[in-house]
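Problem: given the chain below (402 residues), write out its structure.
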Amino acid sequence: MIHPELCKAENTTYWTAKRIQFNLLLVEVAAWDGFIPLTKKQLAEEMNTTTLRINKFIRECLDEGVLAEKSGHYFLTKYIDFTKTKGYVRHFAFLRSQEFISLPVRVQRFILHVLSQRIYMHDNMVFRIKLDRLYHHFDLYQNEKVLDRPGIFNLYSRQDMMKVLDQVKRFFSFDIRKNSKGREILKLTNFTGEFKDKTDDIIHNRGKHIWVLTQLENQGYTADEVHEKHLNELVSIMDHYVRDLGFHDASVLFNEALDKAVRSMQFHSLMEDEQSSLRNYFLKIMHEVEMDYAARLANQADQLQTEEYQRTKANKVDQTLSALIKRSMSYIAKKIEKLEERWKKRFASPEDYLRDSIDLKTPVIRHMRSLALTISKHKKTGVQKSPPEKPFKPFNWLEVDI
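Solution.
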């Protein structure tokens, strides 16, 4: 799925054909939060170009706000977040075909802009626009041409626009008619000809799978050793945690759990067996790591609070340092709050708590009052962490058949 801002004419004006393909590659490989899991060398190999050109594209993307750099990693800012992004453009496979790439770049830009209008959603959808709005208009001033009204596309005459439309007709149906005022109106409808049958041929995002596979490779696995079923299960687990905690915290927990899992023979046995399910085993480790992470956060919050209290008591007031400590405490408190909300959903009923009970460590209880209260209520309903033991019954030898 492509962010509409990567298709609109006002943004693509100065992009080359190669730059358009670079953007489409970023869309394909962007993982959670738009994280780009490929190195510059890998991006160059994907595009069959040099790292020098990739560096140039990255600088352009950073300047334009298409990419952002955080801690040495790149994030695609124009990615589809369904909670914030209104609409998206389908990543049609033909956009990556040699047939599309070989088109003049002005034709490529026009097709992308039309796709941003999403006329392919229904057969009866139409894109209407005054033809003279698509190209620049000039006036004579002191015998020199001066731009009077800029067009949507970087085209300098109606003739240039018609040359573009002449090649666009391979992709879309269109008609040009005059309105009552004599102005030409371009009416463009859905895909036509061979491309009408290619609308279901979509390029799916593979960034999440690349990210998980990279973490496994960091632990010594190779791509051919990882079964698709296990990869999908691990991606699904990350999806779940990212939704609750955000990409940064989810990735920290995932890598800690993976570090712990690879020290277990059971994990390696499951990874080798293509028919086995890895989900429950890895989730159990994630839950253990989650508890440790919450305890670390709670201890950090306590240390900061103690440090601020001791400084205040000793009259060593430093406004800058105090503000920094407060920001740090607020940052940690938000992380703890997300974990608490996650656990409240996880232990919403006494039955949930019985099935997957937890022992909250003391520092965590102090920072998760609401969760502690919920669990306390579960305990009062008579929930026990383990079923009662059966009463001892002596073995009766007389009942044994000989």
